[in-house]
Specification:
InterPro entries: AlkB/XylM (IPR033885), FA_desaturase_dom (IPR005804)
Helix content: 55-70%
Shape: globular
Pfam families: FA_desaturase
Order of helices and strands: EHHHHEHHHHHHEEHHHHH
GO molecular function: metal ion binding; monooxygenase activity
Structural class: mainly alpha
Protein name: Alkane 1-monooxygenase 2
Oligomer: single chain
Strand content: under 5%
EC number: 1.14.15.3
Length: 382
């Protein structure tokens, strides 16, 4: 196992070390520039999130230092703060822009569609990523912020599915968002759009059943999810009419797409070994694709250190560790360029299938028939 440089708690606590992770805040003025000026400025959001950070990654390369795991919560204040303030920032930005453009009426139909696309890129690339971080935390306040962020994407069920299903069953047939070998993104996307809510609801109902409570018990978070999403829809209509609703729903759809294309990249073709009788090996770093690109990890608050996130889900993002190729499979590039590749299945397959086959040969040379893994026909986990 490779030993990476360790960053001391004192260094981790410095605001200058946390500052790069605040780059997401720069997207707020970009969104307003698009709303005010329209035209060519509508390309700014995707250019900033996809291409700029890809270019910086190409220049800066990877960052392999790991935080000292003894770093305390207090020493992570500046990292936590950006995830906490994002929910009100996104709320004011999203609904403020919907109110402004519907009242001003200065953008044509195509400009409104482009604007909503950019807002969806923001709420998907940043909002849902931050919601993911917050949903994993113990304080109820942070979990509430996660629910508020997810409701702005009309994807509230993600919290239940992610915590109760994905982390427990990743790499098995029971996990809807483990992308299968040779499964193109577009097929994956429409599959998980309907499988994920059902999976999440069943998981919550099963948890209530273990407490001898019916599925419709008031503690079922799906009631909260529905109330929050309905509130967001009503607010969009109230401040922007039917045009405001259209803008809101379209940006929500784009944010869903942003989330699921990342889900697709994170686990494509990686499966846990079936040990027999519905029992699977424990989750290890090898069951998620790892990427250590510097700039895209700033933007995505270390989400690309996904191998460690699944190995130790309760770690806050500054403490996530990176791994080398001996312990975890490596993506050739950061998420921005890999998600663009995923949109073109022949390109994606050409890049990733040889890597999946190499991963199989390296970790599971004893498995001769991969058909049940590719088709997700192995027994459901117990």
């Amino acid at each position: 196992m490779t030993t990476f440089p360790i960053v001391s708690p004192a260094n981790m606590a410095r605001i200058t070390r946390a500052a790069p992770f605040w780059c997401s805040v720069g997207l707020v003025p970009i969104a307003w520039i698009e709303a005010i000026y329209g035209g060519w400025t509508l390309f700014l959001m995707p250019v900033m999130t996809w291409y700029l950070f890809t270019a910086i990654d190409a220049i800066a390369g990877t960052y392999d230092a790991n935080a000292d795991l003894e770093t305390s919560e207090g020493e992570l204040f500046w990292y936590r703060l950006v995830t906490i303030i994002w929910a009100p920032l996104q709320f004011v930005t999203l609904f403020g822009i919907i109110w402004y453009v519907t009242a001003a009426g200065h953008l044509n139909v195509w400009e409104l569609i482009g604007l909503a696309f950019g807002l969806g890129v923001m709420s998907g690339t940043i909002g849902i990523v931050y919601a993911h971080e917050l949903a994993h935390q113990k304080p109820k306040f942070e979990r509430w912020l996660a629910d508020i962020l997810l409701s702005m994407s009309l994807y509230s069920h993600f919290r239940s599915e992610h915590l109760l299903v994905h982390h427990r069953y990743v790499g098995t047939p029971r996990d809807p968002v483990t992308a299968r070998y040779n499964e193109g993104f577009h097929k994956f996307f429409f599959r998980v759009l309907h499988q994920q809510p059902v999976s999440a609801f069943k998981a919550e109902a099963a948890m209530l059943a273990r407490k001898n409570q019916p599925w419709h018990h008031r503690s079922n978070p799906f009631w909260r999810y529905a109330a929050l999403q309905l509130a967001m829809i009503c607010l969009a209509i109230w401040i922007g009419g039917w045009v405001g609703l259209g803008l809101f729903v379209y940006q929500a759809f784009i944010s869903m797409w942003q989330l699921e294309i990342v889900n697709y990249v994170e686990h494509y073709g990686l499966t846990r070994k079936h040990l027999g009788a519905g029992k699977y090996e424990h989750v290890l770093p090898r069951h998620s694709w790892n990427a250590s690109q510097l700039a895209s990890n700033w933007l995505l608050i270390n989400l690309q250190r996904h191998s460690d996130h699944h190995y130790k889900p309760d770690r806050r993002f500054p403490l996530l560790q990176t791994y080398d190729e001996n312990d975890a499979p490596q993506l050739p590039y950061g998420y921005p360029i890999m998600t663009m590749a995923a949109m073109v299945p022949p390109v994606w397959i050409r890049i990733m299938n040889p890597r999946v086959r190499a991963w199989r040969k390296k970790y599971y040379p004893e498995i001769e028939d991969w058909t049940p893994y590719k088709d997700a026909t192995n027994p459901m986990p117990r």
